[in-house]
Amino acid sequence: MTTNTVNYVEPTTEELAEGLRLRRKKRVVNFAIDVFLIVVSILMLLPLVFLVANAFKTPAEMLSWPPTIIPRDPTIANFSAVLGETPLLRWIGNSIAFAVMSTIAIVATSAIAGYVFGKFRFRTLNILFALFLATAIVPFEVYMIPLYFQAKSLGILNSVWGLLLGYLVMSFGIFLIRQNVIHTIPDELLEAARIDGAGEFWIFLHIVLPLLRGALGALAVLAFFQAWTAFAWPMIVTTTRTSYTIEVGLALFQTGFTVDLGRLSAASATVLIPSILLFVVLRRNFVQGVASTGLKE
Questions:
Q1: How many other C-beta atoms can be found within 10 angstroms of the C-beta atom of residue 145?
Q2: Are 176 and 220 in contact (CB under 8 A)?
Q3: What are the Cα distances from residue 147, in Å, to 144, 152, 159, 173, 225?
Q4: CA of 66: how far to CAs of 69, 103, 233, 238, in Å?
């Protein structure tokens, strides 16, 4: 019987000094990276801070130099003027209805198509998936006018249904869900459910969808903000003042020669509330869903 022994060699003074120097260098580099990221974050948040601050400023203070972050004489006159003279709440309601319905449609179509493309092996499905991806490189402006005539023929202009016509499917959403289906749902789990007598619809509802909760949450955030910030399509489809979305309504504060900064800032600050609330509620699912897209089996 043989015994392997390992002789411990005590590090020399030079090796200890070198290790200490490397640790100090690593701490300095990490500290520099943290400082850089903090500075960049502050610079990115600064326009948002000024936007909210300008909403509470008087016109004179808004044009003063140097600009002030905290208003010297806060006022809610801008909010009162916006809410009293424009249908801002109606615009926000239109945008919320449009964004929510678009999110539901995109999540539903992406979940179904992503599952089919990810787990069913047919050559025609690969061709269809390639066509869906190809549509992602086609600008929306290319087929926006034909889509407008289709909405006009259906009689859904100046309505949420007309807005929804251009935002029912997202090619990136199908790709995102397909990748998550491939890398996070094992085929053995689905085969076991089929052997037990489960139908495809039951498998999709009770197995696939719960496992895609993170990815669907991320897709919901992306779909909501895509519809919430849409401008070109709502500007074409909506022609009456009461049917505008918030993006089209905010453009009314800018004329050919002047911009009402106070009211525009107040309206923009009010519009931020739904967006921030949605991101706060779904931020964990958003990060989890995006991160899991790159997982490997």
A1: 10
A2: no
A3: 5, 9, 15, 21, 21
A4: 10, 42, 39, 40
Q: How much is the pTM?
A: 0.72
Whole-angstrom distance, CA of residue 101 vs CA of residue 227: 9
User: What tokens were used for 198?
Assistant: 């489960």
Structure tokens at 175: 């790709």
With tokens 């009456």, the residue in question is: 240
Amino acid identity of residue 83, one-letter, is: L
Rounded CA-CA distance 103/161 in Å is: 13
What is the C-alpha end-to-end distance of the chain, expressed in Å?
43
pLDDT (tens place) for every residue of the chain, 297 residues total: 455 555 656 667 776 677 777 888 888 888 889 899 999 888 888 878 877 777 777 777 677 777 777 777 777 777 777 777 778 888 888 888 898 899 999 999 888 888 888 777 777 777 777 777 777 777 777 788 888 888 888 888 888 888 888 888 888 888 888 888 888 888 788 788 888 777 778 888 888 888 888 788 888 888 888 888 888 888 888 888 888 888 888 777 776 556 667 777 777 777 777 777 777 776 665 555 555 544 444
**Amino acid at the residue 188:** E
Domain boundaries, given as residue ranges, for the chain = 13-74, 77-295
> Which are the contacts of 133, defined by CB distance < 8 A and separation ≥ 6?
171, 175
The two tokens of residue 156 are 């859904």
* Residue 279 phi, psi (nearest 5): -65, -40
Task: Give the C-alpha separation, 221 to 215, whole Å.
Answer: 10
Domain 77-295 matching CATH 3.20.20.100: the answer reads no
Please tell me the distance from the alpha carbon of residue 108 to that of residue 167, in angstroms, as a whole number: 12
Q: Report which residue type is found at 74.
A: P
